[in-house]
């Protein structure tokens, strides 16, 4: 049986993380072998203490803590590097991704060809405010026009991907928003699967639409350059002939 790891980058989500971790455990117990890696990206609200208090209840849970806030992509990379599973499921720490969708993504993986290395969640119905929905729709449209990755919702936090394939990708801050294009650049296939999207339970988003736009423009240009300049050689072994 494959071991699956669930990686949850989290920043100041003290009031959301406990229920989210319990849901992950509830939906995976008895279905697959798994571990859960929470990466606390420099929280200042006691998030780490909440996670530590859950360890006796959920033995599959581990906590890794950054000394400062390095960003979601760096926290994701830390989690994947320390995960035990050969396949990684990711969730945002705010509870808007539904852990009940993880078995759905795993079932989709089990019937997919071996060259599919990423199954991305697709939030068909968004539970966000109007400004955030409009900004996300516009960002996805611009990204698709540049990258042609065929992915309707690259910003969805719930994904399932092969650990080895992910670790072979170029690592940079905000890379998590471009995983489909980066996987395709490496020669792998990606698919999108409709998933549930829930209202935020407590707290507020750590990123503003304006902040996303500022970094998104530079990142999009950089990823476009990476995709355009990538060369994948096709080779074959040559047998030595003997006289």
UniProtKB/TrEMBL annotation:
The keyword Flavoprotein does not apply. It comes from Coralloluteibacterium thermophilum. The keyword RNA-binding does not apply. SUPFAM superfamilies: Nucleotide-diphospho-sugar transferases (SSF53448). Keywords: Cell membrane, Glycosyltransferase, Lipopolysaccharide biosynthesis, Membrane, Transferase, Transmembrane, Transmembrane helix. This is Glycosyltransferase family 2 protein. It comes from the Bacteria. Residues 5-166 form the Glycosyltransferase 2-like domain.
